[in-house]
Design brief:
Layout (H helix, E strand, L loop, with lengths): L4 E4 L8 E6 L10 H15 L4 E6 L4 H12 L4 E5 L10 H8 L3 E4 L5 H14 L4 E3 L14 H18 L5 E6 L3 H12 L5 E6 L4 H18 L13 E3 L12 H14 L8 H14 L6 E6 L3 H13 L4
């Protein structure tokens, strides 16, 4: 599933060269990093002998859209615990697509996810089903290592594309939410015996908690592959939480301006929840750290429906 990787105009100055890998163009369910990750969860579900899938997210979730699409295509029942179907957020393109995909959406308060998972799993088991919850147990632990393989493989693609282009990236930037994509890139870097600086721009979590989750995922993955854990594992985890702008899904005019600018200059469709915030955060990081003359890769993790949601929001009154 190779996706295009090419140089774009760098607006961060200081003689840096900026490239983008377009995982938003993956050919399934409107693309995005969650396509690679979703198929890893599906394959793991099959390995466990489960016959239905339980997913969790909010109305903007790209992962839930992709998993719902996979389950619908494979004729597997899918159940989504959704944390903002109570009027606290407007319907999104992703949430509308979930109805097309015949996913059963179960409202759940954000402070009651564990209880919601437990109740749903119990219900499904009482119906004779064998449910697979993508995050493991009711506390959301146990399967952190599963999606890591997706971007360990994608990292190898990047290495091959570097060789083709005759470049070696000094930095790789990506939006970091659940941490699965960043964990996979770090795993790929370890397996390739390189030492690139892979920087996640956090869109939802503070550094301490997010880094802990990434570390746990890497340890699970390496253990499953029977690969010794490197002593400097913690040193390889770079998660920047200084660009959250108030939390998940929050943004302001700086992100809005970045999204507009990158579409006009580089034809990149970014969104304010993930890629737009990450791209803006990358630009700020490069300026604040006075990075000069570097070869930089931005991994475009997709979210096409959210780009169009953004255009609709702009027409109705602008940033939140």
């Amino acid at each position: 599933m190779h996706t295009p990787l090419y140089e774009i105009r760098c607006t961060a100055g200081r003689g840096n060269r900026l490239y983008v890998k377009r995982d938003d163009l993956l050919p399934f369910s409107l693309g995005g990093n969650k396509v690679r990750i979703g198929w890893e969860f599906y394959r793991d579900m099959r390995r466990t002998g489960s016959d239905c899938m339980v997913i969790y997210g909010d109305s903007r979730s790209n992962l839930c859209r992709v998993l719902g699409n996979i389950c619908c295509q494979e004729q597997i029942p899918c159940y989504m615990l959704c944390t903002n179907v109570d009027g606290s957020a407007r319907p999104s393109s992703n949430s509308r697509l979930m109805t097309w995909l015949r996913t059963e959406v179960i409202p759940c308060r954000k402070d009651a996810v564990a209880q919601g998972v437990e109740a749903l799993l119990a219900r499904l088991e009482s119906e004779g089903k064998k449910p697979y919850y993508i995050y493991g147990d009711k506390s959301g632990e146990g399967r952190e290592g599963v999606p890591v393989q997706a971007y360990a493989d994608a990292y190898q693609e990047i290495v091959e594309q570097e060789e083709h282009l005759g470049v070696s990236f000094d930095y790789i930037f990506t939006a970091s939410g659940t941490g699965a994509t960043q964990s996979g890139l770090i795993a790929g870097d370890l397996l390739a015996r390189k030492d690139k600086k892979i920087i996640g721009i956090s869109v939802s979590r503070e550094r301490e908690r997010g880094s802990r989750i990434i570390g746990r995922a890497l340890k699970q993955y390496l253990k499953g592959c029977k690969i010794p854990e490197p002593e400097d594992l913690a040193r390889r985890i770079h998660l920047e939480d200084g660009y959250l702008l108030g939390g998940y899904g929050r943004y302001d005019g700086r992100v809005t301006d970045c999204i507009r600018r990158q579409f006009v200059i580089n034809s990149l469709p970014l969104d304010p929840t993930y890629t737009g915030k990450a791209f803006w955060g990358m630009e700020q990081y490069l300026e604040e750290h006075k990075i000069e003359g570097a070869d930089i890769l931005f991994l475009h993790t997709g979210g096409a429906p959210l780009f169009y949601d953004f255009l609709t929001d702009e027409a109705k009154g602008g940033a939140r």
